Each structure stands twice: as C-alpha cells, then as structure tokens.
Amino acid sequence: MLPDSMIRPAALIGLALTLCACTKQETAPAMRAAGPDVILQRETETIDDTVPEHATLDSLLRQNQLSADLVRAAVESAAGVFNPRQLRANRPYRLVRSIDGLLREFEYQIDADRFLRIINRDRSQPAVLEAEVLPYEKDTRTIAIHATIDSEHPSLIAAVQETGENIQLAMSLAEIFSGQIDFVSDLQPGDGFEVLFEKSTRDGQFAGYGAILGARFIADGREHRAFRWTNGETGRAGYYDEQGRSLKRFMLRTPLRFEPRVTSGFSRNRLHPVFRTYRAHLGIDYAAPVGAPVVAVASGAVVSAGWAGGGGNQIRLRHPGGYESFYLHLSSFGTGIRAGAHVDQGQLIGRVGATGTATGPHLDFRLRRSGVFVNPLIEHSRMPPGDPILAAYLPAFMTARDTLLQALETTLAASPASGAPDAVRAVR
After folding, report:
1. Nearest CA to 335 among 349, 355, 345?
2. How many other C-beta atoms lie within 10 A of the C-beta of residue 104?
3. What angle do CA 121, 126, 131 make, to 5 degrees?
C-alpha cells in the first residue's frame, strides 16, 4: 500500500488526464473541415439605362418585367406630377426592383434641374406608390473669366471656349450686348471681355450656367458695360449700363441666338443667285444650319405663319411703332406660332431651313416700317437705348453696380494672361 503522500499526486495526475480527454472530445467537432459558405440571395436588383426611342412610362416599365398592375399603379401615381407620355429618348433612368418583380424605386431625369421619383415606402403594400418631382442638388459658384480676341480666337465663341467655358455662355453674353455690339464686324484683334457669372455642377460635372452678373466688353476700341439688377418691388431683372440705362432695346439686332454671318446684305439691285437677274433684296441673309433657332426681334403679334411661295415657310410679325418683321425659308414653326398669337422679344418662333427658292439653308430676315422695307442693321443702329432705371431706384442700382465691379476686379486681379484656361477664379 502506497503512503498517502504518493497517492495524492497520482490522483491529481489522473484527474488532469481525464479532464484533458473530455475537453478533446467536446472540441473535436470544431476541428472538422468547414462546409461550403451559405450564399444569401440578393433582395433587389438595380437597372441603370437610358430611355429608348418612342417609349412611354408604361412601355418602359413593362419592358423591365414589371406586372401590369404595378405598371398601372406607377403611371397613375406619376400622372399627378408629370405627364407619363413625355419621356425623352436617351435620358437616363434608374429602376430598383425586388427579385420577385416588385417595384421599389424608379428615377427618371426630366431635365438638367429635375428628376421624377416613384417609390414604394410600404413593403406590405407593393402597389401603393408615391411619385414626386425633385430638384437635383447642385453646387453653384460665382466665377469670372477674361479673354482676348486675336488671330487664333477671332470670334466671341472661340475666345470663350479658350477659357474652358462653352458656347452657352458666349450666346448669353452676345444676347446681353446685342444692342451695342455687332459681333460680326465690330470685333478686332486686341479687343476682349471680362465676365462674372454663375456656374453649377452636379456630382463634379457641369450642370449649366446661371445668370451673368456683370461684364465689361471692349469692341472696336469702345468699352461697354453690363450689370444685372433686379427691381426689389417687381422682382424683374434686367441688364443696364453704368448709368442705369437699359441695354435692352426695342428690337434685337438679329433673330439668331449665335454670331450670324451675313451672306447677302440689303440691296435695291442684287444679282439673284437662282434666277441670275438683278432685283431688289429687301432683307439680310444669314448663314445658319438647318434647325438653328430663330427668335422674335421684338414683342408683337403673329400676322401670318405659313407658306409664302419663294419665301418658303415664312413668319410675319407686327410690332409697335409701325414695324413688321419677316422670317423666310424656315424649316418649321415654333409651338403656338399662328395668326393672332402674341410673342415676346427673344421667344423661339421657328427654325432655319431652305424652303422655297433657296440655294441652301439660311435665314432671310426683313424689316418693314410704315409699309416700306428698310435695312434692319441700319434701322437698329438708329434706335435709342432702352428705358433707364427710375430715379427712386437709382441709388440701390449704383450700390449693386459698385459691388459687382469690385467682385469682378478682385477676382481677376491675380489672373494670368487673357484667354488661358486657368484664368478662372472662384469668387465664393
């Protein structure tokens, strides 16, 4: 028999071995080879695409395998905020649907500023959909550019594009100064301009221009200035020179929204390009591509809009002061342009074409005063400036003018050479 002093250590060792064996048996299952991972099925799928030609909201949703009941519910919900038949081809859309074919969310870009959203907020009622038109979130800044007219950039459009901006800004600038500057003949090497304007981006991409706030333009050695000012009482905005005189004249210089090139001037005895005989040409011919927008040079009423023989599709407008304007060889008429309709200055009335007796696409623009055709360019140059700001509002305008001048000068103070792309500075 072993003494007690030897029995105790032996017992302890046995107990330890037993516990170790038990532990190995309990943990053994964890050492087995792991089986394959369990893959959870996606609950939804997202489709990003563009609207096909001739699609409606109904046909687009059916194309994406939604049931007839859901399509009907979506169209009915959208109809309260948007015309479901007015989808535009090639506009982007995004559709989120469940694996079993239920609509979760649909978004469609209406234009650069807004989008349509149809959403199911209650999963227990899949056919209950809500529709709303929402604005895109944009980052809008006020920036400035300056540029110079030279041999490499002889036009306003070319000079603007050299700064990294696009033709939309050039057209807006030309429209502001259309009563003061002939952008075909007045621009000379060494002329230039400075512009303070709003520019928006969405997700880092260009999303459009806002208002031009102020501009300074040197053309043919003469300086012109424009300041945007809004009447606090009426809420109407306009452009004025440094003395508060409106830059908007009774009549625009041309009915085209870009820098038009004159191909044939006003003449009492011109060789006709088709008939090869000398006859009067009582208008100005502007070279322009088919489809270029044509606008009303002044507010007035439509006298006629239709076929005019050799003039092709023609629009005739009547304006105050005994003036009438004529727009010939159009490819189409603007929406609502018919006899008796009212038009505003700058409103789209038609598009350039080559209808009637024409050798190619162009606009023949004519102006008649008191029944006699006159040279539109000479007549425009004789028209007085627009109405000035009323004396009661002049101090407020002067304050706004000085603020804009300071912003423009401060922004451009450190700018490099004119026309360089990095000559853009953020004002705020």
Report:
1. 349
2. 19
3. 50
Rounded-to-integer distance, Cα 342 and Cα 226, Å: 29
Amino acid in the structure at residue 3:
P
Q: What is the spatial distance between Cα 236 and Cα 250, in angstroms, rounded to a whole number?
A: 17
The pLDDT of residue 335 is above 70 = yes
Using alpha carbons, select from 286, 313, 316 the residue that is nearest to residue 300. Answer: 316
Please state the φ and ψ torsions of residue 210, each to the nearest 5 degrees: -95, -145
Write out the two tokens for 118.
């149809």
Q: What is the pLDDT of residues 183-215, one digit of tens each?
A: 877 889 999 999 999 999 988 889 889 999 999
Taking the C-alpha atoms of residue 305 and residue 340, their distance in angstroms, rounded to an integer, is: 10
Question: Which residue stretches of 123-177 are H helix?
Answer: 156-162, 167-176
Question: How many CB atoms are located within 10 Å of the residue 398 CB?
Answer: 16
For the CA atoms of 236, 242, 243, 244, the dihedral, rounded to the nearest 10 degrees, stands at 0
Which two tokens mark 286? 């502007």
Kindly report the pTM of this predicted structure: 0.66
Q: Under a CB-based contact definition with an 8 Å cutoff, are residues 121 and 96 in contact?
A: no
Instruction: Tell me how far apart the alpha carbons of residues 249 and 384 are, in angstroms, rounded to a whole number.
Output: 7
Contact 199, 209 (CB under 8 A): yes
CB-side exposure of 400: number of CA atoms within 13 Å? 22
How does DSSP classify residue 136?
P
